[in-house]
Amino acid sequence: MANSIRQRLADAALSRLLRQGPAANDYVLATARTPMRDGVVLVGDHYAPVTARPRGTVLMRSPYGRGFPASALNGRLFAARGYHVIIQSVRGTFGSGGRFVPMAQEAEDGLDTVAWLREQPWFDGRLATLGASYLAWSQWAMMQDPPPELRAAVVYVGPHDFREAVYGTGAFTLGDFLGWSDLIAHQEDGGLLRRALNDASARRRLRPALEGLPLAEAADPVLRGRAPWYREWLAHPDGDDPWWQPYRAGAALDRVDTPVLIISGWQDLFVDQSLRQYEALRARNVEVGLTVGPWTHLTVGLQGAMTMARESLAWLDQHMAEGPAARKSPVRVFRTGERRWHELASWPPPSAPAIFQLHADRTLTLAAGPARGGDPSRPDALDGSVVSAGEATGETVRFRYDPADPTPTVGGRTLTGSMGVKDNRALEARADVLTFTTDPLPTAVDVIGAPVLELAVSVEPEHADVFVRLCDVDKRGHSRNFADGMRRLDPSVPAGRTQRLTLTLDPCFHRLAAGHRLRVQVSGGSFPRFARNVGSAADAHELRPRDHTVHCAQSRLVLPVAAPN
After folding, report:
1. Fewer CB atoms inside 10 A, N or C side of the chain?
2. Sign of CA dihedral 210, 214, 219, 221
3. Is 246's pLDDT higher than 90?
């Protein structure tokens, strides 16, 4: 189907909005039906450029449909610049055959789609993959066995290990993945207006499922049998369970040699995995570009749309069409607190550990000595160790966590409610949140990489969680988060016995301005981002409060800061 004048005008307006040059060619849109090895047929949209010199094929595989925004930001934009674009609906979604099972079929179905591409007369042997979130996962799944035609990959805000995203803290990431399951379960209900109303009412509709117990039964009235995987996730909390193997595509990081562009946001729930992807590929000398902006998982496609379009097209042009170098430097990152982009040769840049001690008077002071154990580069050496009787001495401070009135989620790397950077003052006023704060900083401090909190804590009873956060407190007292960490404690440690934890917090690139203060929060959870720890082994109706004691003399923050020039 050829473009109408109206569509051409819309495409031109989008190009101007994204600060792209004018279209190089027209394109036509057709339906692509692709058979899989088991006979299931997947449906896709083929945006075919009308040009004698096409630039190759871009493959996107999605469970979210083939309409806006992918149709405009990727399909039409790229096709108008010489690329064949296939936007394919994965199994069981938007007209494709089969049953949707998250992640399970994406490796095989991706390779079967490439096999089909080889048979198409317009396919010239040059292939790229592209997409965000689940579309990023589908790329990593296929890159476990990368096809020889693959010339480039563009990965936005996406994981390679989905189990890590669901249970990496030891607690179930409730709000994000109940919400995602609800989205998939209802995304094809009615027309566009109905779907918009469903999205707008999600927070209200999901509240009984978030607050109810047991979690699986509480979600049944909302999911209505359309997301059977949700119950299965809850039934498999063990990280060593082979059931999770289809959800893990880390092998791709050891096998792919294709140039990969990774785009993420400091408040994206997958940013830790994005940085691990970059580091693993760079260690193998794979050409890799990294861009991290001030975005959440959802705002990367809005606030970051211009950056994504510009950098993606430049990456494809370089590696698919022998265009000029796509980037000034391999790494481009936005420093929060300073609100400025930086070009770097690699991530992370050099840093040195600044060590801060926690005190019972709620202060946080710069310590004179190195990190505990003498090696700041290895603060995980004592993770999970148990302190012998009498060893945990000195200052202590306590709080009580009550799952009947759980510490609420305020911002952070989540899809739940108000995500991203938020003012934490109301949260910090709660009795179940401890804060430890420095004096005003005499000079600016640049935090680079993943801070580590070494925390000595005892709990009664033994089933408990610890949630920690770093905040930047400005001169007016506004306290804004920039890094979090969460851990479900080992319930085999007897109640009251002190545990030494090493909590690696979110990676960050943040400037604490002169006159600002650094604050550490310690609490017993973040609900509904993470499922409440009800205080017992069972996911039961009984909610048991528990007391947390922080042993300050054995607790300190190791902050990676910019190395001296």
Report:
1. C
2. negative
3. yes
Q: Stretch 88-117: mean pLDDT, rounded? A: 98
Positions of E strands within 239-387: 260-267, 288-296, 331-335, 340-344, 351-358, 364-366, 385-386
Residues 6+ away with beta carbon under 8 Å from 334:
266, 292, 293, 294, 340, 341, 342, 509
Q: From CA 558, how far away is CA 556, in angstroms rounded?
A: 7
Domains of the chain are 5-164+246-344 (3.40.50.1820), 173-236 (no CATH), 351-562 (2.60.120.260)
pLDDT tens-place string over residues 16-30: 877 788 898 999 999
Percent of the chain predicted with pLDDT > 90: 83
In whole angstroms, give the CA distance from residue 563 to residue 565.
6
Q: From 527, 418, 413, select the one nearest 470 (Cα to Cα).
A: 413
109 and 38 Cβ atoms separated by less than 8 Å: no
**Nearest one of 162, 132, 164 to 64, comparing CA atoms:** 132
DSSP-assigned letters across all residues of 91-105: TTSTT--S---TTTT
> In the structure, what pLDDT confidence band is assigned to residue 391 with cuts at 50, 70 and 90?
very low
pTM (2 d.p.): 0.93
Tokens 């390679």 belong to 160
CA dist 356 → 14, 170, 408, 509 (Å)? 49, 26, 26, 18
Single-letter amino acid code for the residue at 406: P
- 530-558: per-residue pLDDT in tens? 999 998 766 667 799 999 999 999 999 99
Are 337 and 508 within 8 A, CB to CB? no
pLDDT digit string, tens, across residues 432-488? 999 999 999 999 999 999 999 999 999 999 999 999 999 999 999 999 999 999 999
Using the Cα atoms of residue 222, residue 226, residue 230 and residue 232 in order, give the sign of their dihedral: positive
Q: Are 291 and 332 in contact (CB under 8 A)?
A: yes
Render pLDDT for 289-313 as a digit per residue (tens, 0 to 9): 999 999 999 999 989 999 999 999 9
Give me the amino acid identity at 528: P
- Closest C-alpha to 534, from 365, 395, 403: 403
Q: Which amino acid is at 125?
A: G
Q: Which has more pLDDT, 375 or 78?
A: 78
CB atoms closer than 10 angstroms to residue 315: 24
Mean pLDDT (the chain) is 92
Residues 179/290, Cβ–Cβ less than 8 Å = no
